[in-house]
Amino acid sequence: MTDLQGAWKLDIAAVGSRISDKSVSPVALTEMMLGRIGRIDSQVLSYVTVLKDEALKSAEIAEKEIAGGEYRGPLHGVPIAIKDIYDTKGVKTTACSKVRENYIPNQDCTVVRKFREAGAVILGKVTTHEFAFGFDSHPTRNAWKLDHIPSGSSGGSAAAIAAGLCFAATGSDTGGSIRAPAAANGIAGIKPTYGRVSKAGVAVLSWSLDHAGPLARTVRDLAILLNIMAGQDPLDPHTKDVAVPDYTAALTGDIREVRLGVPTDYFSEDVQPEVADAVAKAIKHLESLGAKVVPVGISGLDGVLDCMLAIAMSEAAAYHQSSLRKTPDLFGDETRLLLEAGEMMPATTYINAQRARVAIKAAFRQALRDVDVLVTPTQPSTALKIGQSLSRIGSREESVFGVSARFCAPFNISGLPAASVPCGLSTEKLPIGLQIVGKPFDEVTVLRVADAYERHSRWHLEYPAIAN
């Protein structure tokens, strides 16, 4: 494939195959991506730092290795982006905050090290809400409609992929920050089980809620990326010694007899009609592929956002305590106010939230007892407009946080694996996401169901006009 016209539309599986058979040059592919960033990103604003020279050097090394028969695997020579809370050796890792505007790590975080070992080409660092503590990822725009937010905090990752400015990116998820931007930007993303992927070298928002994971154009790409990212890490005591399967091998397309739990409450309440309709059609589609739909009731979730906020704000305040006291003015107003509120949170509130968390986990264990996965909307509505502070959905008026986290945060509280895949477009041409949730460390089934849906739909082949 000497003509790279439209190559940005390829997924990692396809472009990796072409790199492997030497019909695509990693150098030419990287130059193509850098050119697109130069032309398009002034509108999307997804990159904080573009590593032009480093990326080209990595691509040249990859090309020589592959020519010499040293092919490392499907990510070798593929250009990707890194969320700016992941440490990158010798490259600023700012977390999009003045607090860290001069922070240059002396080593890569575990995930970035693994990607380098796999031969990936790192194009640069992409935006995040400051310290990943929010959902609008300012100043990044939604690639589908530039006057809408990309959601967050991994908004830079998702917008860059949607606009065709990288083939994949890392994300982090504390209350939905991989899945919400994946849904808002019409791409795929997965939050693995808590303890599946190392967070060593990734800036902390909340130790007990944070998850590291990938975003990409397709489910197969998520499987390829997770094959590299997953595994116990001695540098992260939260990671678990649980065998990592070959996620790509599980993508058979066969979901006959898979039991889909469809919640009859909470996740069906106050949902934008177009979102509810798209998700209902997606569930029917999965049923037509042989899956069995099982209605499931899940009790005790009404206070889940209060629970998540109490834990996240308290743990974030503890992590940032020193900086908050020494240089409070370096934090953005929104982040500083949240951290100050976290410092004032009574210990009893934090303890009661952790007690509530035990009950929420038990509710999901019960809900998953007789089914293999749960299927819900990723968000109750499509992406909000930039500057829109409140949205009315059904009988509920809620904030950007509520829209982004209401259906996602329960699975940070419970630590369950959850993916989002595109399942429709609204009349405004804004993407809609389908969330698939599995049992602990069963990302295989989550990805298998998501892949089966994707194989028989075309939503992942839709692209925003700005990308073309």
Summarize the helix and strand pattern as letters: HHEHEHEHEHEEHEHEHHHHEEEHHEEH
Specify the CATH homologous superfamily: Amidase signature (AS) domain
The biggest sheet, with number of strands, parallel, antiparallel or mixed sense and barrel status, is: 8 strands, mixed
Radius of gyration, taken over Cα atoms and rounded to an integer in Å: 21 Å
**Strand residues, percent:** 5-15%
Number of helices: 15
Spatial shape: globular
Determine the CATH topology.
Answer: Amidase signature (AS) enzymes
DSSP strand count: 13
Describe this structure in words.
It is built from 15 helices and 13 strands. By secondary structure, the protein is an alpha+beta fold. Strand 2 (79-83), helix 4 (110-117) and strand 3 form a beta-alpha-beta unit. The radius of gyration is 21 Å and the shape is globular. It starts with 11 loop residues before the first helix and ends in a 13-residue tail after the last helix. It has helices at residues 12-20, 26-44, 52-67, 110-117, 155-162, 179-185, 219-229, 273-288, 304-319, 321-326, 333-343, 347-367, 400-405, 410-413, 443-455; strands at residues 47-50, 79-83, 121-126, 168-173, 188-191, 211-216, 259-263, 292-296, 373-377, 390-393, 396-399, 418-425, 431-438. The mean pLDDT is 97. It has a single domain (7-467), classed as Alpha-Beta Complex (Amidase signature (AS) enzymes), CATH 3.90.1300.10. It is 37% helix and 15% strand.
